[in-house]
Specification:
alpha/beta; Rossmann fold; 8 strands; globular
Length: 200
């Protein structure tokens, strides 16, 4: 299956009907952490603590995703308190860390959420994410994902993991659902008139 790339920014108009139909069923976005929400680097401080760097635009994208009434969850092969903090900030749940085998973790998420596999979109970057891509409704690979994952993805982002790729993927999904414009319209309406600015 060839991944669909945006032609000019993030677009969904050229998508086949079958893909749009599958996207319409999506209720939860399942994210890998390292290489997706981060650039994949592992930084150790002194005393020994693992540091992670997250992109703020991914956070704003996930907030829009929740505004659309959708859910998000994390499965990570590593464990880090920083991930719990970021997930709490963004209202992401469930968060399953230290899960090198991601299929049992997926079964936990299906049980907790009551969702079906076809209602979940997954975003990943490497071979351990491949079983999820082959079993869930939509697969999204970051631009610097391994070739195997990009080869089966429904969408490949234009930016690398940790650089706003999650934000791009959410825009792609919401545009395909015809939800994007209505979600961002209130931000356009927030413009103050000259008189309001003078009164401020």
């Amino acid at each position: 299956m060839m991944p669909f790339q945006p032609m000019d920014g993030v677009r969904s108009t050229a998508l086949p009907d079958v893909v749009i139909t599958r996207i319409a069923s999506i209720e939860l976005l399942l994210l890998d952490v390292d290489g997706v929400l981060t650039d994949g680097s592992v930084i150790y401080g002194d005393p020994i603590v693992e540091l992670k760097r997250f992109h703020v635009r991914d956070g704003s994208g996930l907030k829009l995703w929740r505004m659309a009434g959708k859910q998000a969850a994390l499965i990570s092969g590593r464990s880090s308190p920083a991930v719990d903090v970021r997930a709490m900030e963004l209202g992401i749940s469930p968060v399953l860390q230290g899960r090198s085998d991601k299929m049992p973790a997926l079964r936990e998420i299906l049980q907790v959420t009551g969702l079906k596999p076809e209602q979940i979109a997954v975003m990943g970057d490497d071979i351990p994410d491949l079983p999820l891509f082959l079993n869930l409704g939509i697969g999204i690979a970051v631009a610097d994902a391994c070739a195997e994952l990009r080869g089966v993805a429904d969408y490949v982002t234009t930016v690398n993991g940790g650089r706003g790729a999650v934000r791009e993927a959410i825009e792609w999904l919401l545009k395909a659902m015809n939800r994007w414009d209505s979600l961002i319209e209130p931000f356009y309406r927030a413009k103050l008139s000259d008189e309001e600015i003078l009164r401020a």
